[in-house]
Design a protein that fits this description.
alpha+beta; Aminopeptidase; Alpha-Beta Plaits; 2 domains; nine-stranded antiparallel β-sheet; four-stranded parallel β-sheet; 9 helices
Length: 429
């Protein structure tokens, strides 16, 4: 968009957001993200979607950029380049594919921060690991009883910005239960699945198991005791957690061999999850973490995905090497994607100073200038465009990457006002 309202000769400003969203839904939802519209509603000043993610991450940023492009010609604005990327949520592949030479602006406003009152000036880098563990099956005992074991109702959330809250991981929980069952009763594992997206903390996990008739009572006690233990540890945080052992009418014809089920359970239990290290330089900032994101069956293999993040490249590589060593020790094949870079803070940034001043005027207090433990596209774009001066800000979004996602409507209005004020301040008449 050309500059207008006297801003025609101003330096070009880049407005950046991503067009993809995390498509998560509750288990009881029949929503089809490929064709169904979101069922939106407002509750106590928050916009939500029934049973699904909302897509405010980063639909709000996209909407703001599109609105800027449609502003009246008399509006005082500098020239704008609106940069929309794809696949931010699945590995920043859109940003990686960007040809930096097409970008003319050297000041960028990323609209993907999720707390009103904050200015983000740095983020973690990261990379995924995909483990494939071969398994063997055998004929299931004909007299064993079949059950579904499920862990449900956890909060889930973003594996970067929420990881410090130490929310429960359904895969971690269910593997602990299965380990206890297999060690103390005659239990055979038929199937195990949990989690979905690499950047979402798993909310649910499900296993089909076979239990010998004489061990059913003991198995029920073990499951109940494990649930009580989880509730003692996470009860105030995971108030809706449920661990359910329910009988199945049909009996599977095969199950994993004892060696394969032991390998699978032990591999999952050995992999790290959660905060691995806090920053020595920034109080309260997570430096390094790993999300044990998903476990899925794929023919005669189990696929396990881990998403590792760190603000220090060497620490990131150390943890990825650790995961590779664990995989090799269980004879699992491992593929690791090229890591994406972090975004190093620049406290002397000109756009930061302008934004701090305007934010302070709006808030009547100083904004919180911070770095986040999540992957923003700023790190990738900054490597591709030399001399790019960047900040990130946005309205308040809670529960991203989960069906609890919601955006505070009042903060969207403030965010839009802030955006316009910043652009006006960047206009040279």
């Amino acid at each position: 968009r050309p500059g207008s309202g006297g801003g025609e000769k101003s330096p070009t400003i880049v407005i950046q957001s991503h067009v993809d969203m995390v498509c998560e839904k509750n288990r009881d939802s029949n929503h089809d993200f490929m064709k169904d519209p979101l069922n939106l509603y407002i509750e106590k000043g928050w916009l939500k979607a029934k049973g699904t993610t909302l897509g405010a991450d980063n639909g709000i940023g996209v909407a703001a950029a599109l609105s800027l492009l449609e502003m009246p010609k008399e509006t005082t604005l500098p020239p704008l380049e609106c940069l929309f990327t794809v696949d931010e949520e699945t590995g920043l592949t859109g940003a990686f594919a960007l040809n930096g030479e097409i970008i003319k602006g050297r000041t960028m406003l990323n609209l993907d921060t999720e707390d009103w009152g904050e200015i983000c000036i740095g983020c973690a880098g990261g990379g995924d690991s995909s483990l494939n563990l071969p398994i063997e099956t055998q004929e299931a005992p004909s007299d064993f009883l079949s059950f579904q074991l499920s862990v449900e109702g956890l909060q889930g959330g973003h594996s970067g910005v929420d990881i410090h809250e130490e929310r429960g991981n359904a895969i971690v929980f269910i593997s602990s239960i299965l380990d206890n069952l297999c060690q103390n009763t005659d239990t055979r594992l038929v199937s195990l699945e949990g989690g979905d997206k690499h950047n979402a903390i798993p909310r649910e996990a499900f296993a089909t198991i076979l239990i010998s008739p004489e061990a059913v009572s003991d198995a029920q006690i073990i499951v109940s005791n494990k649930e009580n233990g989880f509730k003692k540890e996470f009860g105030s945080l995971e108030t809706n957690m449920q661990v359910i052992l329910s009988g199945l009418k049909s009996s599977p014809k095969s199950s994993l061999t004892k060696k394969s089920q032991k390998n699978l359970i032990n591999l999952i239990r050995t992999l790290p999850h959660g905060v691995l290290k806090y920053s020595h330089d920034v109080e309260g900032l997570v430096e390094t973490s790993n999300n044990l994101a998903s476990v899925k069956i794929n023919n005669n293999h189990y696929n396990i995905v881990c998403s590792t993040r760190s603000s220090i490249a060497e620490a990131l590589e150390f943890q990825r090497e650790r995961i590779s060593i664990i995989a090799n020790s269980y004879e699992a094949l491992i593929e690791q994607e090229e890591p994406y870079p972090g975004w190093a803070p620049n406290i002397n940034s000109p756009i930061l100073e302008i934004t701090k001043r305007i934010y302070s005027e709006m808030l009547d207090t100083k904004p919180n200038v911070c770095a986040i433990h999540a992957g923003l596209e700023c790190g990738v774009i900054g490597e591709k465009v030399d001399g790019m001066d960047m900040i990130s800000f946005g309205p308040t979004i809670k529960g991203p990457h989960s069906p609890d996602e919601r955006v505070e409507i009042e903060s969207v209005d403030k965010f839009w006002t802030l955006l316009l004020k910043i652009l006006k301040a960047l206009t040279v008449k």
